[in-house]
Structures are given as C-alpha cells and as structure tokens.
C-alpha cells in the first residue's frame, strides 16, 4: 500500500539547494519549493502543507523570522530549520520562539533529513489526531451532558405528579388511612426529587459560563434560609453580614454553594440538641468575600474530612446523597473560590469560603 | 382554566384547586390549541370566559410561551380580567427568567402545585 503523500515545503534562497532537494526527495514526498519567505507564504496559503523546511540565512526574512510570523496563522505544519554549524544564536532563537521541531546542519545528509521529515510528519499526524480526538470527546461529553439534562427533566415531571397526589391525599385527610404507606411514598419521592435537583445543579454548574451580577449577601442568605429551613423550624440562625461595597459574582453558583452548605448545616444537627444553632458570617471586601458557616451539629469524623468533597462519599450513619459538597467544590472551582473545613464531633462544623469579587 | 398536556397533572391540580373553593368552575384543556379554541369560541360570552389561567410550559406542538404569543392578541378588555400564572416542573433558570419577564405572566409556580401558593398569589 502506498503511504499517504506527505506535503513538504522547502524554502531557501539558493536555487541549487532547491533543485537538489527536489531531486533527492521527489519520489517520497510531494515537494513544494520557494525561493523566499514571501513565496513560501503564498504556497502555504494555497496548499495544505504538513512539514516546512526553511533555511535560516536568507535575505529579507530569515528562517526563524518566517517561522515566528506563521505561529498564529499556520500553527499546524511541523517546522525544520536548516542552519550552518556556527549559527548558535539563530538556533537558540529558533528553539525559544519559532516552535521548531528539528534543526539540520548544512549541508544536509539525505538520510538524516529523510528521517527528520518522516518523524516530523508523524508528529504532525499525532497533533491532528489528538485534536480530532479532543473534538470528538467534547462532542460526546456535550451530548452526555445534554442527555443528563433532558432525562432529569423527564424524570422529574412524573415525580412531581406523584408528590402532587400525596399532597392531595393530605388535603383529603387520607394521609394516615393506610398506615404509614403514604408517608413512605412521600419520603421516597422527596429523596428522588432531591437527587434529580442535585443532578441538574451539577449539570448546570458544568455547563453554564460564569455570569456576573451584583449580589447582596444579606438578601440572598435570608432567602436561602427561608427555602431550606422550611421543613425544620428548630434551628436558630444568626446571620451577620458586613457588606459596605458592591459585590459582583456568579449568582447561580454562589446560590448553589451557600444553599448546599446551609441545607447541610440544618440536616446534620444532633438529634437531641435542644439549642440547634447555625452562624453565618459574611464579610465583603474589595478583593473577595469571606463566608463562614458554622453549626453545633454532629460534626465530621477526622478521617472523613478529606473525603467529604469527593463524589458519592457518604458517611455511614447519615444518609446524604453524596453530591452536595461535591457540587459545592465543583462550583467553587469554576469561580476560583476556596473552601476550608474544620470540625469536631463535640462542637460541630465550620466551613470557611472565600469567593473573589469580580467587579 | 387549566392548560396542561399531562392528564394526571390535570386531574390532580383540578382537584387541588376545587378544594380551595377559589373558583366556581374549572375549564380543563389538554393543549394550548384547545384553550385558544375555547377562548375564541366564547369571546363574546363573558360568563364562559376564565378569570385565571394556569399554564404549563412544556407541551408538545404549542408550548406555554407560544400560547402566550397567541394570548396577547386577545383584546385587553379580556386579558386584563384574566391573569396567567405558569405552572411547570422546570428548574431551568432560562425558563424561569423568560416566564417572569413576560408581561402577561404574574408568576411562575413550580410543580408540585401548592394550593397555598395559589392562595398567596390571588
């Protein structure tokens, strides 16, 4: 089988070299020659060249200058520089700025040059293959993401119907009519809904580009507490927001971060604690916002502290989804935020977050 | 008037709403087209016209937003007396913003439908 033809462009101001090159390699490669950098550029514009060989010493534009000039416009072809032995400076320059794959000393040895062209073509192919693979993977990833999104919505629609039926049963005073069956259905449905909502949050965090808008932490935190404390009225919240300047950030992600942490602070209280407390302190500065959320809940075991941000890590005792803190971490990564946690089983847990002010 | 392609949701929500005793009659439509036909047919007959519409977003053929495009063609004398709330299981930020930006929509209610929220709204 004939190997695919490799298109090689050779630029040199000496006509003799061009013809010698052509004579030696025309059987193996598709050869294009140019007598100057300007001529070479013209060929690049019309032919899809894979390997470029350029002589360093040329009037007007040197080989390195030519390579530098095409790094943006023609990044794909692999470059080989031909230089005299003594031209160390040009070499250093070429390696540092010209994105050169090989240099060959003049006069060239046919075999050496032939091997270099072959290797250069392999490098070219690897580069293009990698790019195609990446594009393919991006596409698959995108489809997978969209699939998660659609399927989550499709799953949720009938689920909320079920929750609606349970609500109706409550209103018609039949909730306790079948022992605890209705309440079990309700618990399962809510749990399933929780998973679907987390999945959507995860999807959206992955997908959405950061959008900045002005954020008033006091309002935001008050709203979030209202939403999450809906089912639990025992917990006492102390919120202290110091915000004397505008803060700009990604509202969706900050909401996801604070929402998950607040809901955890409520969920992981000590069952027998009479005085359930959550403190939220926020201080907004010009560079960043510092947020601390601490509770007097059940705390996190020392050996678990490192794992709590990993996907699907759950503590054995208390059934979480294993997604909340993972999503918090992912969302923070997207907006260059940081999180630290300290916890002990006696005093509860404190999460400290910093989020850069994007103003 | 309830507009939703999902029969089960129509059944549940009609029942939930009738339990609130907020309305005398509930008109049930399984699509935007059916709702528009009904409205066009009874446009001259005030007694038959709804005073409140609960509209699903995701429906085949004509979705909630398309319905609204047709809805705004009706005369103000009718639409002013008949506010629209959207009711959807969507958690899509885009949908929510789009619904709330529409001048004919007074609120986007989330499924599962809560009679309490409806009471607060009216």
Structure description:
The complex is a heterodimer of chains A (359) and B (122). Helices cover 47% and strands 20% of the residues of chain A. Chain A has 359 residues and is an alpha/beta fold. A five-stranded parallel sheet of chain A has the order 2-1-3-4-5, with helices on both faces. Chain B is an alpha/beta fold and 122 residues long. Chain B has helices at 7-20, 32-41, 64-71, 76-79, 93-101, 115-121; strands at residues 2-3, 28-29, 53-56, 84-88, 105-110. In chain B, strands 2-1-3-4-5 form a five-stranded parallel sheet, sandwiched between helices. In chain B, strand 4 (84-88), helix 5 (93-101) and strand 5 (105-110) form a beta-alpha-beta unit. Chain B is globular. Classes of the chains: A alpha/beta (359), B alpha/beta (122). At the A-B interface, helix 5 and helix 6 of A face helix 1 of B.
Tell me briefly what this model is:
The complex is a heterodimer of chains A (359) and B (122). With 359 residues, chain A is an alpha/beta fold.
Under CATH, the homologous superfamily of the largest domain in chain A reads Histidine kinase-like ATPase, C-terminal domain
Number of E strands of chain B: 5
CATH first level of the largest domain in chain A: Alpha Beta
Beta-strand residue fraction of chain B: 15-25%
The class by helix and strand makeup of chain B works out as: alpha/beta
Oligomer state of the chains in this structure: heterodimer
Q: Helix- and strand-based class of chain A?
A: alpha/beta
What are the segments of chain A in which pLDDT stays under 50 over at least 5 consecutive residues? none
> What is the topology, as strand order, of the major beta sheet of chain A?
2-1-3-4-5
What is the mean pLDDT of chain A?
89
Secondary-structure element string of chain A: EHEHEHEHEHHEHEEHEEHEE
Overall shape of chain A: it is: elongated
Q: Tell me roughly what share of residues is in helical segments of chain B.
A: 40-55%
């Amino acid at each position: 089988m004939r190997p695919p033809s490799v298109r090689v462009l050779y630029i040199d101001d000496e006509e003799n070299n061009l013809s010698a090159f052509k004579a030696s390699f025309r059987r193996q490669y598709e050869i294009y020659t140019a007598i100057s950098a300007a001529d070479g550029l013209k060929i690049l514009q019309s032919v899809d060249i894979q390997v470029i060989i350029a002589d360093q010493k040329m009037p007007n534009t040197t080989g390195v200058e030519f390579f530098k000039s095409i790094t943006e416009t023609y990044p794909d072809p692999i470059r080989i520089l031909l230089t005299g032995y003594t031209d160390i400076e040009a070499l250093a320059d070429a390696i540092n700025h010209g994105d050169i794959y090989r240099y060959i000393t003049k006069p060239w040895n046919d075999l050496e040059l032939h091997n270099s062209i072959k290797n250069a073509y392999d490098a070219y192919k690897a580069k293009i293959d990698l790019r195609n693979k990446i594009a393919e993977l991006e596409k698959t990833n995108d489809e997978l993401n969209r699939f998660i999104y659609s399927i989550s919505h499709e799953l949720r629609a009938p689920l909320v119907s079920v929750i609606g039926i349970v609500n109706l049963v409550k209103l018609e005073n039949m909730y306790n009519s079948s022992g605890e069956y209705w309440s079990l259905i309700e618990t399962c449905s809510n749990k399933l809904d929780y998973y679907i909502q987390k999945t959507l949050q995860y999807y959206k965090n992955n997908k959405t580009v950061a959008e900045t808008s002005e954020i008033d932490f006091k309002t935001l935190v008050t709203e979030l507490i209202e939403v999450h404390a809906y089912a639990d009225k025992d917990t006492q919240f102390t919120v202290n927001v110091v915000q004397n300047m505008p803060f700009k950030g990604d509202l969706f992600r900050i909401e996801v971060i604070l929402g998950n942490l607040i809901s955890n602070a409520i969920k992981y209280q000590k069952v027998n604690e009479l005085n359930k407390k959550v403190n939220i302190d926020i201080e907004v500065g010009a560079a960043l916002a510092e947020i601390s959320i601490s509770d007097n809940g059940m705390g996190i075991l020392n050996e678990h502290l490192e794992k709590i941000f990993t996907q699907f890590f759950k503590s054995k005792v208390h059934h979480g989804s294993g997604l909340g803190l993972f999503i918090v971490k992912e969302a923070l990564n997207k907006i260059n935020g940081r999180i630290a946690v300290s916890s002990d089983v006696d005093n509860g847990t404190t999460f400290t977050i910093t989020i850069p002010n994007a103003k | 008037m309830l507009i939703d392609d999902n029969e089960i949701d129509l059944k549940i929500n009609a029942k939930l709403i009738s339990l609130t005793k907020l309305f005398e009659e509930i008109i049930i439509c399984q699509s935007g087209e059916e709702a528009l036909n009904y409205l066009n047919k009874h446009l001259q007959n005030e007694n038959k016209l709804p005073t409140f519409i609960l509209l699903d977003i995701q429906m085949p053929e004509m979705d909630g937003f398309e319905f609204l495009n047709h809805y705004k063609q009706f005369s103000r004398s009718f639409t002013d007396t008949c506010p629209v709330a959207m009711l959807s299981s969507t958690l899509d930020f885009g949908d929510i913003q789009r619904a709330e930006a529409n001048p004919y929509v007074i609120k986007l209610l989330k499924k599962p439908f809560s009679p309490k929220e409806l009471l607060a709204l009216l």
